[in-house]
Amino acid sequence: MNPKVDFYFSEGKKWQEELEQLRTIVLACELTEKLKWGVPCYLYQDRNLVLIHVFKEYCALLFFKGALLKDPHHILIQQTKNTQATRQIRFTHVKEIIEKEFILKTYIQEAIEVEKAGLKVQLKEASEFETPDEFQDKLTEMPALQTAFKMLTPGRQRAYLLYFAAPKQSKTRESRIEKCIPQILIGKGLHD
Questions:
Q1: Contact 177, 164 (CB under 8 A)
Q2: Does the predicted model carry a pTM greater than 0.85?
Q3: Phi, psi (degrees; rounded to nearest 5) at 89
Q4: Domains of the chain, each with CATH number or no CATH
Q5: For residue range 74-128, what is the model confidence (pLDDT) as tens digits?
Q6: Cβ-count burial of 101 within 10 angstroms (0-12 exposed, 13-18 middle, 19+ buried)?
Q7: Average pLDDT over all residues of the chain
Q8: How many other CB atoms sit within 10 Å of the CB of residue 61?
Q9: CB of 97 closer than 8 Å to CB of 91
Q10: How many Å apart are CA 31 and CA 45, to the nearest integer?
């Protein structure tokens, strides 16, 4: 147990009992506990393996390379259609965690084996994501924008493409694109 992480388990959160049970299970797998992104993160040889986090309607154990796990019990959930590597197991009651303790430890051991083997999730290239017509029109209309966009890292390109494609209405997509053009032109990502 890392004392810097204790606060996460002692603040009287809605999922207190569930969080403590998850922590006990994960620590039994001899992982290193650290605080990352404000939540408990568990590492194997300095590599992020799993983290515990809470949401309004559930708490979860998130596997960083969950897409590579076999999941014979069909309990891993892809959070959104655009999530590529991570998968989570969700819980709404401590009883579920206790009942799945052996399965959770088995999944954690498999995740350790994935790390030992050096396996990596094959991420889609930014070019494989949909480019909304409105953004493609701007890229064609403004060669400087196209050049600047191509200079961004693949992750930044992907973030913009997902952000631009999300709205259902063309007007909203156009508005988002217009607001982001200055940022793209100076080489900044969506969240920089």
A1: yes
A2: no
A3: -115, 125
A4: 6-116 (3.30.1460), 126-185 (no CATH)
A5: 999 998 777 778 999 999 999 999 999 999 999 999 999 999 999 898 877 766 7
A6: middle
A7: 91
A8: 25
A9: yes
A10: 8
